[in-house]
Design brief:
- By secondary structure, this protein is mainly alpha-helical.
- The chain has a domain of 242 residues.
- The protein is 67% helix and 3% strand.
- The strands form two sheets. A two-stranded antiparallel sheet has the order 1-2. It has a two-stranded antiparallel ribbon with strand order 3-4.
- α2 runs parallel beside α8.
- The longest helix has 28 residues.
Length: 360
């Protein structure tokens, strides 16, 4: 127990000091770390659905989009410029406070998760994956076309001029935020906010995993018929898994909108869903440390390879496009991991454990 406490303290100090060291080499590195934390939040949410309950969800990015657009609509001038009656109600513009919008985004995404889960309760495996994939694409197409006849999402042009995060009297929209005598870059403060959310999410996921609900999810994952025979209400447990996982996606989306200041349907493509699933699977499905490791690696690796791909492109005389080369390197890394570590980088110690020897 004492050793675990020492490890936690060292890790906490390292995570706190990391952006302060990284910003010496440029704020771009801090931005990469902040985005990696957002993907950790997404992967933890999907792990509830895929890792605990065993429900393959390929449309998880839809909940990410719901949260992002919820924040963008309530924290930007788009609605007041489009609808005159809203402008009359809010003459100064509709700039909902951050602490109000985030719970609304989480609730709306959770409701969307339950709505998705209701018609697919009897589906399993590949069929469930196809239906959830279709749901994700429906949401993306819906956001892409909902500018006629009433302009709600501004279509493929997206929503801009989104208010930055306002927290404890500080606005994170400026380049540097003054905290007493210190001038801290806003991207560093975003990193700390995302880190606090990830820590809270890890605590929630751990408590869920060891609770009766978590054990019920795992029973459904291993054998749904046996779980139902043991008296578990599989219908409600599946809906709860979809709703809980979607809530994480909604919070992540609202954070993304505040961080970027702009959202568009292109940010929520099928490839994003596939990458989030890959984070869970490559890291170690159902295992929180493995999911975090997989999310950090797959979120940071493409950005880090931007610096490598350009040099390799120059070595080939420009005959290979840098973006294609970067995707090739990511694919090779994923294939290598699956060949060398088929259960993930950090699999759960319980999953796949050999049966105990019979007592003589």
């Amino acid at each position: 127990m004492k050793n675990k406490l020492v490890v936690f303290v060292v890790c906490a100090l390292a995570l706190i000091a990391l952006p302060l060291v990284a910003q010496q080499f440029g704020q771009g590195w801090v931005r990469i770390m902040a985005l990696a934390l957002l993907y950790v939040l997404l992967a933890l949410g999907l792990n509830i659905v895929v890792g605990y309950a065993g429900l393959l969800d390929l449309g998880y990015v839809a909940f990410y989009a719901v949260g992002a657009y919820m924040y963008a609509l309530l924290a930007s001038p788009h609605l007041t410029e489009t609808f005159e009656w809203i402008a009359q109600l809010f003459p100064g513009g509709l700039h909902a406070p951050f602490l109000l919008v985030v719970p609304l985004a989480a609730a709306l995404a959770g409701l969307a998760g339950v709505l998705l889960g209701t018609p697919v309760l009897k589906l399993r495996g590949d069929y469930l994956a196809i239906v959830t994939l279709g749901f994700g694409e429906i949401i993306r197409v819906f956001l892409n076309n909902l500018e006629h006849p009433v302009n709600v999402t501004n279509g493929p042009r997206g929503l801009d001029r989104i208010d930055p995060m306002h927290l404890l009297g500080f606005s994170l929209g400026s380049r540097d935020v003054s905290i007493g005598p210190l001038a801290v870059p806003s991207v560093t403060l975003y990193y700390y906010v995302f880190l606090a959310l990830v820590v809270l999410s890890v605590v929630i996921c751990h408590r869920l995993e060891t609770s009766r609900i978590g054990r019920a999810w795992m029973a459904i994952r291993e054998d749904e018929v046996a779980a139902k025979a043991m008296g578990i209400n599989t219908r409600n447990m599946k809906l709860l898994a979809f709703g809980m996982g979607a809530t994480f996606g909604g919070v992540s989306g609202s954070m993304f909108a505040a961080f970027q200041g702009f959202v568009s349907p292109e940010s929520f493509s099928l490839m994003e869903s596939v990458m989030i699933v890959a984070m869970v699977v490559l890291g170690g499905i159902g295992h929180i440390p493995g999911v975090i490791l997989g999310a950090v690696m797959l979120a940071a690796l493409p950005e880090v390879l931007r610096y490598v791909a350009g040099d390799v492109q120059n070595m080939t005389g420009g005959r290979i496009d840098a973006s294609i080369l970067r995707q090739l390197l990511i694919a090779l890394a994923m294939i290598s991991i699956m060949l060398l570590r088929p259960r993930g980088l950090w699999p759960s110690p319980e999953h796949g454990k050999a049966a105990p020897a019979p007592v003589q």
